[in-house]
Design goal:
Pfam families: Ceramidase_alk. With about 450 residues, the chain is α+β, with helices and mostly antiparallel strands. About 35% of the residues lie in helices and about 25% in strands.
Length: about 450
């Protein structure tokens, strides 16, 4: 067998091989940083005061820098944060532009939406009782994370070296559509073998990065599901954290990275125990391992990136009268929201009629398309875009800005938590999006995808 034929066989078998020839046109660099707070910043989410009480494992943010044969670059950031506010990510994007010449289209900042991670800046600001010392700790922690993140991206860029990229796809089945299945009923339905209801996306997309030495440098994988298995006060990455630890244990020296695809209406069920959290993490890691054992598809050289904001209009901007009524509501989140916005009105503020929504498209080679969307996109978006652009398309939610749930038209018509009048939880000056949100997002995705066509 000739040496060239041997390298082809190794690549088809999904085995590590030295980077040669055309594959060497890719360069990749990986870096990581611990984000576990050293102070008593509260845990994010669940709408209450949650002071930390130890940890199960450290929390991380990680960066994968890519450069193609033309010198064009892109950086994907993954993290164990619950949510990143626009004010923070905008400051980071500007620093990356100034320091590393990275334009907005070249950086995607994702967060797993982990509910056992720390508060950041103004994310879900009305969820929490206002305490001066806590606000100070959150501001200091957010500033520290911005600096650490910019330094981490610099490290990843500084480590750019010849690499080979390859993709595959697996399956994990623990995500359940929470809108269509009552949580209390799920264990019995599963025990009986009865099918659960509602749309799901059980795909596990995988991207591997192999260095010139033939060693696995990074494994990026995704899944569409809320990391809400746990609701206690210990630092933990939830099931994505356990999955990344398991993949890294199986591949010493490799960095595992997780993106939440479109899990806005998906939950890990049953839940509420560490044992279940570890179980789901190991199920996801096993799905990744199954992919790594199969022939992976090499990613040809070539990188194109595009980005747009699209304005998502509100159904109706709130009035002073709306806010006065909400300030007397039994819901403490709504009360804090109303009181905060009333102060803004008193100071002369006017509220915008729409919100800028971030949309990315990245094409790696000819066939690997990554779509990145802000905040909590429901599963309909992943299913729609994969039907339109190919089943191997990555449709990532939870990118750049934790602005709100983003319902499809179906979910908006049905209402409920993800589609109804709940924007106040995210601090927006309205109760609900206008009904054309899906149409606006879909048109924008189509434009940015066209911009990266091979």
């Amino acid at each position: 067998m000739t040496r060239a034929r041997l390298l082809v066989c190794l690549a088809l078998a999904g085995l590590a091989a030295p980077v040669r020839g055309q594959e060497a046109a890719w360069k990749a660099g990986v870096a990581r940083a611990v984000i576990t707070p050293n102070t008593d910043v509260w845990l994010a989410g669940y709408g209450t005061k949650r002071p930390p009480d130890g940890k199960l494992h450290d929390l991380w943010m990680k960066a994968l820098a890519l450069e193609d044969h033309t010198g064009d670059r892109a950086v994907l950031i993954t993290s164990d944060f619950q949510g990143v506010p626009k004010e923070m990510s905008d400051r980071v994007f500007e620093q990356l532009r100034v320091k590393y010449k990275l334009e907005r289209r070249q950086v995607m900042f994702t967060f797993s939406h982990n509910h056992c991670g720390p508060r950041l800046g103004s994310d879900l600001v009305d969820y929490y009782p206002v305490e001066a010392e806590q606000e100070k700790l959150v501001a200091e922690y957010t500033t520290l994370m911005e600096a650490r993140l910019v330094a981490m991206v610099g490290e990843a860029l500084g480590r750019l070296a010849p690499a080979a990229l390859a993709t595959g796809r697996g399956t994990a089945t623990f995500a359940v559509n929470r809108r269509n299945n009552r949580e209390a009923d799920v264990p019995a339905l599963l025990a009986k073998g009865e099918p659960l209801k509602g749309p799901v996306d059980h795909a596990v997309p995988v991207l591997t990065v192999t260095g010139a030495d033939g060693k696995l440098a990074a494994v990026l994988f995704g899944y569409a599901c809320h990391p809400t298995t746990l609701s206690f006060n210990k630092w933990c990455g939830d099931y994505p954290g356990f999955a990344q630890l398991a993949v890294e244990k199986a591949h010493p020296g490799a960095t595992a990275m997780f993106v939440n695809t479109c899990g806005g209406d998906q939950n890990p069920l049953p839940r509420r125990s560490v044992e279940l959290c570890e179980k789901y993490g190991h199920m996801l890691a096993a799905a990744v391992e199954d992919v790594l054992k199969t022939p992976l598809k090499p990613v040809a050289p070539g990188l194109k990136t595009a980005f747009e904001y699209v304005d998502l209009p509100y159904e109706r901007v709130v009035t002073r009268e709306d806010l006065k009524a909400a300030a007397a509501d039994a819901n403490p989140i709504k009360r804090r929201w109303a009181e905060r916005l009333l102060k803004q009105l008193d100071a002369g503020a006017t509220f915008p009629a729409a919100y800028p929504y971030p949309v990315h498209a990245w094409r790696l080679g000819r066939d690997t398309l990554m779509i990145g969307t802000g905040a909590e996109t429901v599963v309909d978006y992943a299913l729609q875009f994969k039907a339109a652009y190919g089943s191997d398309t990555w449709v990532c939610g939870y990118a750049d800005d934790m602005l709100a749930y983003i319902p499809s038209r179906r979910v908006w018509d049905e209402g409920g938590y993800e589609g109804g009048p709940n924007l106040f939880e995210y601090g927006r000056p309205a109760f609900r999006w206008a009904g054309d949100v899906e149409a606006r997002v879909t048109r924008t995705v189509a434009r940015v995808v066209r911009a990266v066509e091979p």
